[in-house]
Amino acid sequence: MSGVDPVVLNLTVFILAIFVGYHVVWNVTPALHTPLMAVTNAVSGIIIVGAMLAAGPKELDVGTVLGLVAVMLAAVNVFGGFLVTQRMLDMFKKKGK
């Protein structure tokens, strides 16, 4: 892969991920939306770990700043996703008591 420009390779992977993600989310049956949300939260948790590794160096450069932004955005995504998942699960509980 020495002849391929890394930017082109990364852009290709990004576009393919968008395409696959779109089809996975929109073709899932409604009964599986809650488990899909839970898996998405787990993936965002992994992104937080990677972003913390990117933000870890002591010198302040573009990678560190982008890592900090990624940590904040992924944390909002994880916590918001858990709240939405909890609300979805609450819909399955019996009303009464």
Brief account:
This protein has helices at residues 6-26, 33-55, 62-90. The chain is an all-alpha fold.
Characterization of the model:
- It is a multi-pass membrane protein.
- The transhydrogenation between NADH and NADP is coupled to respiration and ATP hydrolysis and functions as a proton pump across the membrane.
- One of its GO terms (biological process) is NADPH regeneration.
- The protein contains 3 helices and no strands.
- With 97 residues, it is mostly helical.
- Helix 2 runs antiparallel to helix 3.
- The longest helix is centred in the C-terminal third of the chain and has 29 residues.
- The radius of gyration is 18 Å and the shape is flat.
Quaternary: single chain
Largest sheet: none
Strand content: under 5%
User: What's the number of extended β-strand segments?
Assistant: 0
Instruction: Return residue spans where pLDDT drops below 50 for at least 5 consecutive residues.
Output: none
Radius of gyration: 18 Å
